[in-house]
Amino acid sequence: MRSPAMRMFRSLEGLFCVYKPAGVHWKLVRDTIETNLLKGLNATPALPLPHEVRFLSNDEAGASSGLTLRAASVPILSQHPLVTGPEFQLIKVGVGHRLDVSSSGVLVLSVGKGNRILNDLYRTRTTRDYTLDCEFGTATQDFTHAGRVVERTTYGHITRDKMEKVIAMLEGANQKALRMYSNVDMSSQEAYELAVKGLLGPDGKSVPILTSLRCIRFQPPNFTLEVQCLNETQKYLCKVVHEIGLELRSSAVCKGVRRTRDGQFTLQDALTRHQWTAADVMRAIQQYRSKKKSKKIFRTRTDEVILQTSEEKLTGPEENRDNKEATEAQSS
């Protein structure tokens, strides 16, 4: 018979995501959630103690009557929580694509059997979205706003059109790298189907690739970039901002990196600091399961519609009408 704590742990197995604040190490986030999950699991009511039959002496009888015994059911105190300790003393929480200390945003975590799903997520071609807050006129040693300043430049000559040209050049170079690292013939039907589904990408690890890059705010010296990428690091994204500044004959530094999406997980799914409890994590995992199940049903129905449309194109509308009429005549 499973205990309430074990049943709760089974419902906790899966994937969920949290919002990692800037300035907090991802290990501290993981350790905090592990501690909260252990507290929630061990706070559930325990099973009643098992009993055993023991023969106890009956002291009420007189000494002249001799020793008498009686059967009694007593609890087994060796299995009491005060003796055995908490039922759960260790829980493994896995971490997906990690974030630097200075970065913030969506951080995917897993519990129990969800760690295997997390490994599959690493091997897929899922992209991630970032929002980069940048500033012209400064170059630092580590390409971040907190680094040691090595150069100061002017930025009055930079316009929105010049920025868009540099972004288009970077996108073209990264699209070429995406095709080069994809082990698929670009002239094949397979490459077309993968590109339609958004699954065209390198197999396994490769150089960082930007699949999309656009400027969503341009107010010099400040500007904001929206990036979609594969196999990236936050340091690489800061370096991209530095290279954009060099291409514009100036300098630029990244003031903040914020991940807004990691695969299927978005900011709307992320649990904030006060929601890192066992109950909220369980609710988030159940929502992820239901969303994944509904997507499977939608994908199956979509494939059926596509298959039916393909059959109609192959057989023709007249033949389909004749088949339908023949079927109705047989049924009548």
TrEMBL record:
Q: Which Gene3D superfamilies match?
A: Pseudouridine synthase
- Residue ranges of region Disordered? 308-332
InterPro entries per record: PsdUridine_synth_cat_dom_sf, PsdUridine_synth_N, Trub2
| Protein's UniProt name | TruB pseudouridine (psi) synthase family member 2
Q: Which Pfam families match?
A: TruB_N
| One MF annotation (Gene Ontology) recorded for this entry | RNA binding
The protein's organism comes out as Cyprinodon variegatus (Sheepshead minnow)
Q: Where is the Pseudouridine synthase II N-terminal domain?
A: 89-234
Q: Which GO terms describe its biological process?
A: pseudouridine synthesis; RNA processing
Ranges annotated as spanning the membrane = none
Q: Which family does it belong to?
A: Belongs to the pseudouridine synthase TruB family.
